[in-house]
Amino acid sequence: MRRRTIVLAACAAALAASLVIGPAATAKPDAAQAGTVVIGADQEPVTLNFFLTEGNSYTTSLAVSPMLAAGMIYDQNAKLVPYLFDGQPKIVKSNPLTVSFKYKTSAKWSDDKEVTGNDFVATYRTIVNPNWDITSREGWEDIASVKAKGKTVTVTWKKGRSYAAWDALVGNTSPIPAHKVAGQNFNDLWRNSMDVASGPFKFVSWQKGTQLVMSKNNAFTAGPKAKLDRVIFRYIPSTPSIFQALQSGEIDETEPQAQLQIVDIRKNSSFKVQSGPGYFWEHMDLQFGPQGHAALKKKYVRQAIITGINRNQIKQALYVSPGLVASAKDLPVLQSHIFKPFEPTYKPNWARWTFGQKKVITLLKKNGCTGGPSAPSASNNAIWSCPGVGKLSFRFTTTSGNQLRALTFEIAQKQLKSVGIELIPRFGPSGTVFGQILPSGDWDIFMFTWQGSPTSSATSFGSYGCGGDQNYMNYCNKKVSALLEKAQFTPDPKVRAGILNKAEVLMAEDVPSIPMFVRPGFLINNKRVSGTIINPTNQGSTWNVQTWTVSAR
């Protein structure tokens, strides 16, 4: 099951020296050939193992999913459809929850071994093994048994632990090849290459800092064979450069975060631009752990920060005025961390926090803070100090190289400084800030994007519950946590939504994180490439890459 994946921004710079891995790797980027599509990305995987914490990124999923296929995939309508499975999984018993599914007779590995239920058993055992740095074990650790017979698998959860997102857990998880992981250190597996595939493509080479190449897997028979001969992921670590590469023909397709250059690309008849909302939301997390600023443990300080940021102004300046979205209605300020504005269960639980500079100053004075401004001022340099926690000066962490995200920081920095709260930029390469800094908890405020799916709400405990696997901000409210855990095991979606919204009302009072926007997704390709369809989930743009075709230049 694909958990929330992190959408990385661009790396600060390419690696100083390229590491070439795999056969057919070259010292220079491969030129596009007939039957080859070059995908431009402003980020690069750290590892090809997307089960691991350091591999939990959208860019890893884009490259690996066409090689390591799942039982089911999310289509362009965010619906789970069978892929390696021969049909939808079935509920055999409701309590304890027991489900059954079967892999296609034609599903096999690129080394000609069958994909069987034993591969899913190996997947389960690998994920629950505490020796491996797995991103999340939620849902898996509540399984009582996994039994396999040939290509059929039966999974039974513990009594009273009927996991709400069970279909995504069993279906949207790529089975791990049992014959490849036996006796291996999983933390090191697929770090630099991948010697087996179950999808329509297989690994060829990875020239780190430059490109990753995959080719058609002729052994794939679980569905239509790929129409392309090769797909190349070209890693270009800066916003301007990736758009220059698109216009020069160096790359054929890219799935960028919202950037100002898209406005001009839309005017170019050589390109197809698809856009729309999806299950990806930008936010600013606040650190509660021991390595975070002591002031962030004070509720009034967190409330001052969210009150001092004019989220609507940021939206207007960066998305509406430049024309990235047609109107302000197309990008409402996000008022929930659990549901998206296009979901019927969405409630604006964070709308209580409206922009008010004078309110910030009043709140901080009321709590004994000193040294700040008496009134909001764009030229202010006076920063508040508060009892027992010191100066309100916070490290602000995000990835470097992303133009729109840098502008978001600059606006928020100016807004908060005008009321006496200081933000100090701590930008860095994606592999460092997400692979090391984020899970370490050694940060104060961290801005990034979660990318998920329709099941993301049901798995909210992982991000906001006490001790949740992806709760990197170390937030813990026991009442909130109990509600989120209850929701995780509540099968009825209407009842579950009520529980989740109740939990979020309490969360909004605490302000552990600041929701920003459900940013628009974009998929851009040269019109010589056909078959691309934007996907609103973390399945990503390569969800149907096997159907793509390309005409000669």
Notable features of this structure?
Dipeptide-binding Protein, domain 1, Dipeptide-binding Protein, domain 3, 14 helices, 2 domains, eight-stranded mixed β-sheet, alpha+beta, six-stranded mixed β-sheet, single chain, 553 residues
Structure in a nutshell:
With 553 residues, this protein is of the alpha+beta class.
Number of helices: 14
What structural category do the secondary elements indicate? alpha+beta
Q: What percent of residues are in strands?
A: 15-25%
Please state the average pLDDT score. Answer: 93
Write down the overall geometry.
globular
Distance between the termini: 39 Å
* Rg of Cα set: 24 Å
Question: Helix proportion of residues, in percent?
Answer: 10-25%
Strands ordered across the widest β-sheet: 2-10-11-12-3-13-22-14
Largest sheet: 8 strands, mixed
CATH topology of the largest domain: Dipeptide-binding Protein, domain 3
Number of spatially distinct domains: 2
CATH homology-level superfamily of the largest domain: Dipeptide-binding Protein, Domain 3
